[in-house]
Specification:
- By secondary structure, this protein is of the alpha/beta class.
- It folds into two domains: 2-232, Rossmann fold, CATH 3.40.50; 237-348, Rossmann fold (3-Layer(aba) Sandwich), CATH 3.40.50.920.
- It has helices spanning 7-18, 32-44, 55-67, 78-93, 120-126, 142-159, 169-173, 213-229, 252-267, 285-292, 306-314, 336-348; strands at 2-6, 22-25, 48-51, 72-76, 98-104, 135-137, 162-168, 175-179, 236-239, 246-249, 272-277, 279-281, 296-301, 323-327.
- Helix 3 (55-67) runs parallel beside helix 4 (78-93) and helix 9 (252-267) packs across helix 12 (336-348).
- The N and C termini lie far apart (51 Å).
Length: 351
């Protein structure tokens, strides 16, 4: 069955098919349809929706629900996600699974409601305190807004870690055909670690505080081992990269624009390809290096080069490929012509 729907609505559909029990949130443009959809559908299906008084409250409600073994989620945009950073850090430290959706808008500060990707570092590097990571997925279509929401819940519970969907205003508002999932996900087992107010789970303690310094270090080391184990789950798409001389890379909406640029360059006789990370944490390092080896790399994004910096970080030293950036900021959508202009200039460069 198919449904013509917005990306934001597809998130709600994916969450319901994932088995999400509760939604806590506060509306903010361009993510408000997620809260609106949850407010309408969750109660109809016997699930719970609560509009929090602010984003700080919603993330702490998420903490409480997750500690009780509930499949919980929230959604916001950049300013709201900024207010949630302490709570996300607490959840990572306490090893609590939940989903946070960020439909990015322009910043910094209040910014505007145009599409941007300036929250990359906040999501991928961990905008709160401590040595933690959230699992981060970057959809590039309405279909992936649904599918990756389900995947994010799966990964969150598999690794007992908060997960994020990092989208942008364009993906949240665009309407496309969505193929509905064939079945609901199976419910994860939580009694081995959650606290549910019964005798079985009374022994479980949810906390991120270790007053003993050595125990705190061991806890941090365990978390790093968990993040390293996630690397095998990295997801990406390579499009026409095998014979490419120029690889354009981007995520989300920028990747869609870049793919159109690749198709146009191929028509012009330029061997171009696209590398698109689907998971940003874990980052598909091996896939990037395989796609970029011996080729020029052009990074397309709607930020000041935050993703470009990660491309440089993850490229092996022996790859030694030139890397350039084409970007827009301030809520201005990157255009195919922007990418084509930068690609043509890079092709003319002498290595």
């Amino acid at each position: 069955m198919r449904k013509f729907t917005k990306g934001n609505d597809a998130v709600v559909i994916g969450a319901l098919y994932a088995g999400c029990d509760v939604y806590f949130g506060y509306p903010i443009t361009p993510a408000s349809e997620i809260a609106e959809g949850a407010a309408e559908l969750f109660p109809q299906l016997g699930k719970e929706y609560l509009q929090a008084e602010c984003e700080t409250a919603s993330i702490n409600m998420l903490y409480g629900a997750a500690s009780g073994g509930r499949l919980a989620m929230t959604a916001s945009s950049g300013p709201g996600i900024s207010l949630m950073q302490e709570g996300i850090s607490y959840m990572a430290g306490a090893q609590l699974p939940a989903l946070i959706v960020n439909v990015m808008r322009a910043g910094p500060g209040l910014g505007n409601i145009g599409p941007e990707q300036g929250d990359y570092n906040q999501a991928v590097k961990g905008g709160g305190h401590g040595n933690y990571h959230a699992i981060v997925f970057a959809p590039a279509s309405v279909q992936e807004m649904c599918d990756l929401t389900m995947k994010a819940f799966e990964m969150a519970f598999k690794y007992r870690n908060p997960a994020m969907i990092l989208a942008d205003a364009t993906l949240g508002q665009v309407k496309e055909s969505l193929k509905l999932p064939e079945k609901e996900a199976s419910r994860p087992e939580t009694s081995s670690w959650s606290v549910q107010g019964d005798a079985v789970t009374r022994r479980n303690l949810i906390s991120s505080i270790y007053l003993d310094l050595e125990l705190m270090e061991k806890h941090n080391e365990m978390l790093q081992q968990k993040y390293a184990a996630m690397e095998k789950e990295a997801m990406f798409e390579s499009y026409l990269t095998d014979d490419a001389e120029l690889v354009i890379t981007g995520y989300g909406t920028s990747a869609r624009v870049a793919r159109s640029a690749v198709d146009q360059l191929r028509k012009e006789g330029v061997k171009a390809g696209l590398f698109r990370p689907i998971s940003l944490m874990p980052f598909p390092t091996k896939g990037l290096n395989q796609a970029a080896l011996g080729k020029k790399v052009l990074v397309a994004e709607m930020s000041n080069g935050q993703y470009r910096d990660d491309v440089l970080l993850h490229l092996d030293r022996d790859v030694r490929t030139p890397v350039r950036l084409v970007n827009r900021m301030g809520g201005i959508l990157i255009q195919v012509e922007d990418v084509l202009r930068a690609a043509r200039a890079m092709i003319k460069e002498v290595q």
